[in-house]
Amino acid sequence: MTVGFLDLGRPVRSGLVTVDPVSGAPRRVVVMQFNPDSLQRSLAPQATAAEGQGDRTEALRLTGPAVETWTFDAEIDATDQADQPAPDGIHPQLALLELLIQPPSGLLRSNQALAAVGTLEVLPVEAPLTLFVWGGRRVLPVRLTQLSITEDAFDANLNPIRATVSVGLRVLTVNDLPTGHRGAELYLAHLVQKENLAAGTKAAGISALGLTRI
């Protein structure tokens, strides 16, 4: 009997989703062609005193959730999509990513028109809520802080056909979003999930550290 790979479950893709902050309806879904090989996560505590400036009454206080950032590299390759015609190379996939940090052209034109008639204050364009999805356990509200694209190969018409995209994300917390905002609720759900995961670990005693008492 020949054993193939058909019995293996289809791997879950990672990606980014923009959603309406009120209804939660997805607006744009960016699915990573290949899941990144690695993720770099950094967490910095939010303390009341600056590092190195001691305060006996504030040393253990936290002013809010830790500042969490994610960075990763993703690859896009048109040659892996041989069953689909790609007259524009990977331009469409790159455009999807770039539009996550670009205001819509229609709103820019509207703001230009307001400025042209002498409007004193033109509000900045509000972007949709962006979520980073890494499996079912990690659905995080984020802001893109970095998007760097290295185009590695081109077709005869100079359309990019292979690229490496470096993405930097900052997790949005309840300190960044209004109370009741969908993104704030998603962050709290993520934090509760972390607490539940930590609570499920086997408790260790201080004897494991070579101590009998503290």
Automatic annotation (TrEMBL):
Identify the domain of life.
Bacteria
Q: Which Pfam families match?
A: CIS_tube
Where is the Contractile injection system tube protein N-terminal domain positioned along the sequence?
A: 30-169
The record's listing under InterPro entries reads: CIS_tube_prot_N
State the name under which the record lists this protein: Contractile injection system tube protein N-terminal domain-containing protein
Query: Upper taxonomic classification of the species?
Result: Bacteria, Bacillati, Actinomycetota, Actinomycetes, Micromonosporales
